[in-house]
Write a structure and sequence with these properties.
heterotrimer, A mainly alpha (502), B mainly alpha (319), C mainly alpha (124), A: 502 residues, mainly alpha, 23 helices, B: 319 residues, 13 helices, 0% strand, extended
Chain lengths: 502, 319, 124
Amino acid sequence: MQFVQNFPFFCIILTLFSGSVCAVLKSKPARIVNTILITIVGILNACVLAFEIKTGESYTYMMGHFPAPWGNEIRIGVLEAGMALFFCVIMLLSMLGGKHKVLTEIAKEKQNLYYVLVNLLLSSLIALVYTNDIFTAYVFVEINTISACGLIMIRQNGRTIEAAVRYMIMSLLGSGLLLMGICMLYDITGHLLMSNIKQTLEATYASGKLDVPLLVSVAFMCIGLAIKSALFPFHAWLPDAYGYSTVSSAAILSSLVSKGYIFLLIKIIYRVVGFEIFRDTHIINVLFIFGLCGMIFGSVSAIRENDIRRMIAFSSVAQIGYIYMGIGLGTEVGMAASIFHILSHAATKSMLFIAAIGLTEVSDGSRHFIKLTGAGFRNKIAGLTFMAGSLSMVGVPIFAGFISKLLFAQAATVNKGKMLPVLICLGISTILNAIYFMKTVIRIYTPIDDKTFEENKCSVIKARQVPLYTVTCILFIIVNVVLGTMSDPIMDLITKGLSMFA
Amino acid sequence: MSRLKTKEEYEKTIGFKFRRWLYGEEDPYINKVEMVKQHHRHVEEKTITERMHEKQMHREYTYDVNRNKVLKTYSMLYRIASVVFVILIAALLVYNVSWLPKTGAAEKAVNNEVPQRYIENGLQETGAVNIVTGMILDYRAFDTLGESHVLFIATITVLILLRNNKKKATIAQISDRRFEPKNDSILQLGAKILVPVIFVFGIYVVLNGHISPGGGFSGGAIIGAGLILYVSAFGFEKTEKFFTERTYKVISFAALATYCIAKSYSFYTGANHIHSIIPLGQPGAILSSGLILILNICVGMVVACTMYTFYVMFRKGDF
Amino acid sequence: MGPNLIANYGEAIAMIMFAIGMGNLLLQKNLIKKIIGLNIMDSSVYLFLALKGYITGRKVPIVVDGIQEVTAYINPIPAGLVLTGIVVSVSVSALMLSLTIRLYKRYHTLDLDEISLRLRQEGL
């Protein structure tokens, strides 16, 4: 075994360890530890990715002295390593971009605890990405949920705590369903390891029957994870949670937490249930329909919002609808498009949140559209970033959003039965997206006179005053353009990773 | 800077005019270009208050559950849908249960080679007489590592939510503390007798986790209960001498760090097929079963501190 | 109906408990009752899991007198899973209760809907 193969395990254990380290540190060293940690973990994952691309084979890594069905193990492939690397990049950028807000919005003696939460969230995300054992996945889902709740309510006002309660109630409902599904699956297969469950299920499936418990357990797991990742009818907690928490939290929650669950769902579909069996259960159609509804209703709700951050949050609902729609297509191409959309949405949404905070800062902290008029002139870099994010969301070429929409449309043409609804909904949703994003962009680039400037207590922030924020914004734009222009190699990696899953 | 032009010549140049405009000394428009001032729209105080009042009325009407029919129907619909949904789920699950393998039967999918190895070789491979302990702390140790961090992070969130600054203690909180038992002699005598017994029992359960039923979680919970009894009887002044937030953080950091290091050693050696140098010892003895004893102690410490911290946070809000 | 409903009566009870817990979570307005519903849901999963491990006539998996045959002991895996699940449920309950305390201190009510209504009325 080569040394580089240990890296995923190092990532998980390092992040867990640094969680307890940050608890005893003061806030400033904790922040430095957090930044260094995310960077190191990113580099380690990049090494793993390079190794995986070179060898082209997935491998399993024993967690302990006992081989697979007895002990725990993690599994590393191209898709896993790439996803973990991407999560690290986005998390690093979100933390850097929202740093000044963390310093002002969170009570001083609790700031180090914020970094504890972020470190453990990262550890749970990486463990979720790499795990090969379904019960381990459950444990890390719980860590993920609790730390996400902590991220929401760390900025303590009534709104965030109410949002955290709603988030917890929905999430725990989801966890309960997920756990029940896992238990039933364990009962009918007798294994907790993903590959063994799949073998057993394939044997039963080959004998020609699709029994009730399998159907119910798969349905429970899917619905549980759908609730946790805020699929359309279960999204009630989302706008408050994303709209009022501190900006780093909002960026991390929207771009990483929900994506972690979706990735786990994809993993369950491929590695636990098996794609053919899953397609035959018809749960796929439910996900498809919910996804389509989410695309439309999320955008409609976003249009009706007057608050920039809540608008971006509602747009998340629509984008998660896209992802589930891709999963629901039931083809390899659709799945690959979904995974690409996970990447593009994560990159774009965190960028929008970070840009929005720059715009509200120069408008007396107000998030309402009327106050935001002209904010693009007052904070030029934030305006530019917001515009790039909006163009990406609407689907303008050279940005990431265009590629994912194109891929969805291509995937839809393969599937005869679902082609028409997908194309129609894509069209409507794109128009709706354009309405609310372009409305905002026009709004922030409408000049105002001095009197309104005085009345709204506006201020001007130059790029030179906030070097870290500027660099983060530029990096966000670069990530987005890279995703948009170099999509071919990325899609190659995704399809390769998906074929490794089986 | 040498000045070639005289002052009067310089004052006529464009550069000078631009400078004056830039620094706001003279505006070229004033008195040269006709400017019409915009009428400032005057809104009377009365209309503003009226508008605010209307808005408020509108809001109140919209969110008045008793009068707003839409809201009322919506909540009715929600209740009916929930009841139907729950009944459907119950029926589905019961139907599902009827297809599951029989309870108590030996020939089921779950009784396969996995528990077989745990039972047949568990004693030799882990050194733990209690097979469940051997399983969760050695075979499936990664789960348990995650699980102790779940406890840790839950405490962190509770600390974030409920810990308040000592300086800012409000009157309500102080008066809330008035109802704490103070010098209740029956309670104190009972605590004096019971607390040492509970502590000893808890430590016994932690240390015997690999030999008998029990382990870090149950033993830690028992010790935590002892601490809670102690603080109920003698008040916070006494416990704060030896247990503060700092103590909690240091203890849990030490325990979790030990846990992480111990487990990374065994994971690393296991994955790279290096033989572990930790001796398993004589099964049944206290000092046996390798790392399990140490892990149990770590988990016990974390759980005891966590239980006590939960209690203190719920009751008072600071250490 | 499948063939094993009578034999699996314990699991059926666990499932009904699960539905009751879920109903509480969805229908109760009082936050404390919601949390109780949540705990009922979790407990039902543990009951279900515990029944999965049970085998008639066998003993708890603690090696006594050196007997190590598979036929002597019940399945130890569900016990371990229940242990993990209980710890998770304790943590989650503590978090929910502390959230409730904070909400109560601020709004002096335990009704979540009323709190959100009031938030909206304030126009925040």
